[in-house]
Amino acid sequence: MTTTHILGYPRVGEKRELKFALEQYWNGESDVKALQGVASEIRKNNWALQQDNQLSFATAGDFAWYDHVLGTSLLLGHVPKRHKNGFPDLDTLFRIGRGQSQASCGCSGEAASDMTKWFNTNYHYIVPEFSADDKFELSWTQLFDEINEAQKQGHKVKPVLLGPLSYLYLGKEVEEGFDRLTLLPRLLAAYQGIFAKLEKLNVEWVQIDEPILSLELDAKWLSSFKLAYQVIRSDVKVLLTTYFDSVVDALPTITELAIDGLHVDLASAPEQLSEVVEALPENWVLSAGAINGRNVWRANLVEKRESLTAAKEKLGERLWIGTSCSLLHSPVDLELETGLSAETQSWFAFAKQKVAEVNWLAKALDGDKQAIEYCEQYSQPIIKRQQSTSVNKASVQKRLANLTPADAKRSANYAERSHHQKEVIKLPLLPTTTIGSFPQTSEVRKTRAAFKRGELTQGQYREIIQGFIQDTVERQQAIGLDVLVHGEAERNDMVEYFAENLAGFQTTQFGWVQSYGSRCVKPAIVVADIEREQAITVDWTQYAQSLTDKPMKGMLTGPVTILCWTFPREDISREAITNQLAFALQDEVADLQSAGINIIQIDEPAIREGLPLKSRDHQEYLNWAVNAFKVSAASAKPETQIHTHMCYSEFNEIIDSVAALDADVITIETSRSNMELLNAFEEFNYPNEIGPGVYDIHSPNVPSVEWIEQLIEKAATRIPVERLWVNPDCGLKTRNWQETEQSLKNLVEATHRLRAKLA
Ligand code: GLN
Ligand code: ZN
């Protein structure tokens, strides 16, 4: 019988029970015991599910109170110095993740550790902080307690552990002149301690995640693996798990390791299978990550079985079947969805359904007749979908097939456009503007929710939202901004809003995926060819423009960002999806322009995070990503000014692609880095206009006039003042009106002072 397992299961609970329990605990509304109770109930259900589906193991150690990298830090007794305070407990963990509240300590509060994206997913982890004198000691028993807990419930447990090299690699040095790899020997001693405990717990197999093996590691890191795995060798068998990309490059290193099996991700890199099978040492198992752990689609089990037959013949019982990565990145249970059509429902599988897929696929590979039949019948909807004309729309495909370089070209170059724009849009030196959203007050959110529940008619809703727009426009006028926005009161989220208003997307009720801690996101799903059936933003924007003589900036979310923050189709490429979006947005740009909107912003905050894991794949991605943005903007006439916005602080590696977007104006996040990131723009000689953020909207602090003034002056030493804009870092939706108005008044005042100086 084929051995089956999953790499991990969502820990948030079917209806985000962990989220609510955590937040209650943090708000002081419940105690540790109540929180522990919710968590053990979730684990119990997760393990029972794996047992019900006859998986060979119940995976333990995949639970995390905040994120699993932070969990590993605690397991290793590796707490940032500023958070050390005796024996680490759950509150220590939360302090590292969330920062220490000033009220709790009566002090200024110690800062949280940094958080960053987990590879190319939308999950985030707390970055381990390393100093030269760091020590590691087992002090936190969560892993062992949970193994115990699962064993008591009658499960055969396979614990999961983040590997020592990935743990080190994913962290950062917080001291100058020291290399965190030098901590490896000390770290390995702690891992030896972990293994000794696992032996005592009679663990047969442990899953060690080393996802960094799918990156392009330099020799220094790669060559550390061999010794490391020798050092931690014990009687517990090791399944080394890799995911998110191919590990073919690293195979010479991997096959030398003192381990017992390898797991590879066949969802993101199916092509690696034959090479991996070929290279697999004789006594190892190969765990085939066949069921995609990070998307929502039902598997075509017939096809999966075929693709694994040769490996099965060669490896026999040494072939295991599993999910490609942890199911952490999938929504939990499709059965909870009540709003999907039967057809759409039959296209999906969430975490719970994927566990069943693992089992059926393994049985079918074993030649079980009933399972083979089941797989055939189960795969029908997803096979039928390939021919569906409601999925594959002739009109969209025709437009896509005819896409040529001309579709991505504006009719004039920047110099000429800028000339036209100056005539049509009369703007002062250092024009002031904002990034789009204004405070989303509870009234704003309540209005949208009431409309969604059907408690407001379309007419009533429109009137209330127009009221918010009017208020927002009046406030901006009073503040004295030059380019206004309508404020985005009708949008819950910059991607979801477009997904709801474009044909080709499906939204869900409970399709939550953990982002970090108690934060979850509910991405829409691209289910069909994307079409814009009617204008989306024109009515609101036109209304806003009717209230003022100042230019009103239209506000769109760019094609790459929509792609990155939704679940993509798997039957067509990411590039094709993005181009479909680009055409839809191109039409929206044309309609906004016809409605008299002269400035249109196309936000692309996600363009950088969409980069593939391997740098050799970057250029290809950037080429089509940039092209799609340009297709979106290409319907703009020379006198229509296209803005884009990106909120991050690392442009160096993609600056030429950012320039290639050829937006007339780009607004970026700079205030926290004290304008340092402008170096990239200066060195590159960025040709168009730039609005470096001068107000950090992530903090409630109101920046002073002087502070903003010196930031603009600093920016002006790098970018010619004729091409500088003045604006906040990002949208203001999370701020309140009071701090927003005061900050923007200061921003306008600082600009006035500089204009006077320069006059
Ligand atoms: N226009 C969006 C806003 O202001 C941009 C948000 C973003 O960059 N993440 O909210
Ligand atoms: Zn932003």
UniProtKB/TrEMBL annotation:
Enumerate the cofactors the protein uses: Zn(2+)
**Active site (record annotation):** 698
Q: Which InterPro entries match?
A: Cbl-indep_Met_Synth_N, Cobalamin-indep_Met_synthase, Met_Synth_C/arc, UROD/MetE-like_sf
Question: Which reaction equation describes what this protein catalyses?
Answer: 5-methyltetrahydropteroyltri-L-glutamate + L-homocysteine = tetrahydropteroyltri-L-glutamate + L-methionine
* Pathway(s) per entry: Amino-acid biosynthesis; L-methionine biosynthesis via de novo pathway; L-methionine from L-homocysteine (MetE route): step 1/1
Q: Where is the Cobalamin-independent methionine synthase MetE N-terminal domain?
A: 4-314
In which residues is 5-methyltetrahydropteroyltri-L-glutamate bound?
A: 16-19, 117, 122, 519-520, 565, 609
Classification via SUPFAM superfamilies? UROD/MetE-like
The catalytic activity of this protein is classed by the Enzyme Commission as 2.1.1.14
Query: Which GO BP annotation is one of this protein's?
Result: methylation
Q: What PANTHER family does this protein map onto? A: 5-METHYLTETRAHYDROPTEROYLTRIGLUTAMATE--HOMOCYSTEINE METHYLTRANSFERASE (PTHR30519)
Could you tell me what this protein does?
Catalyzes the transfer of a methyl group from 5-methyltetrahydrofolate to homocysteine resulting in methionine formation.
Which family, according to UniProt?
Belongs to the vitamin-B12 independent methionine synthase family.
Q: What is this protein identified as?
A: 5-methyltetrahydropteroyltriglutamate--homocysteine methyltransferase
UniProt organism field: Vibrio superstes NBRC 103154
- Protein's gene: metE
